[in-house]
Amino acid sequence: MPGDRIIFGAAAIPEPDRDWLAAVERLPVESIWQGGHVLPPGPTGEAITRLALMTAWTERVRVGAAVLLLPLYPPVVVAKQLADLDSRSGGRLTVGVGVGGEFRHEFDAVGVPLAERGPRTDEAMWILRTLWGGGPASHHGAFFSFEDVELRPVCPPAEPGPRMRPGGPPLVVSGRRERAMRRAAHLGDGWLPYLVSPEAYARSVRTIEEEAGAAGRDLAGFEWMMYLYCSIRRDGDRARDDVARFLGSAYGDKPRDMLDRIAPAGTPDQVAARLQAYVDAGVRHFVISPAAHDDTLEVVRLAAEEVLPRLSVPASVG
């Protein structure tokens, strides 16, 4: 079952910025996240490039990919890149994994059939863990094969210095469908859905727990996370306008009542009430993604300083 501590992370929207990251590190925020596409429709960053910037420009927080579209990448190459980043950052990396698919041209351009993105992701997760396990490794799967290779993460020069954690960084699974829940239950170190209601999150918790139980897997240490688009302002109407402008057209001009179920907006009191419903459903680590085109630091600051203290784990858990 989910644990007894609630923590907040933040998404570096729209791009990682050194001053923004420094300001967020001074807040009660424990992680910072960014993802990215290989061939996005606009001039926005790619996930591993953004991770490199964020690990270099931060000192304290965990740094996460939300998300890395794993089927677009050769898994042996990405295993080395992520191992080096985890080592250089002192073991601060977490990798959110997704299958993508919204931009078919990305898959066509890298020679990956769209229909194979799920099984390729599963196999790639096994490969990452195999290579991060240390020592010579072999793998012969449906899509990838190698024999007796060894991945050696970069060793920072300082002694004693930071190193990649034994077994590599955690892999948390993103998505909304049951296939993603099954992937989290069997292969993931956590669950990181997005654009779901508290009721849908509670159903996902049950599905993952049932799937893991049937497989004989103990979910001790599993992270129950939520990537949450939201806006928090002193002026609640401004916050709701933020979300409508930021998400409405991008997700099919959804009506405001539907957006409110999946992307809370309002004053700190109003948003805290909405987030408490997610906590009751099982969320313990929120990644606050400002659904706003300006003043995103204010959204994160109000979340960390005024929303987080209002949340509490249900008394039956602990």
TrEMBL record:
Pfam families: Bac_luciferase. GO terms for molecular function: alkanesulfonate monooxygenase activity. Residues 19-247 form the Luciferase-like domain. Keywords: Flavoprotein, FMN, Monooxygenase, Oxidoreductase. The lineage of its organism: Bacteria, Bacillati, Actinomycetota, Actinomycetes, Streptosporangiales. It comes from the Bacteria. It comes from Thermomonospora echinospora. GO terms for biological process: alkanesulfonate catabolic process. This is Flavin-dependent oxidoreductase, luciferase family (Includes alkanesulfonate monooxygenase SsuD and methylene tetrahydromethanopterin reductase).
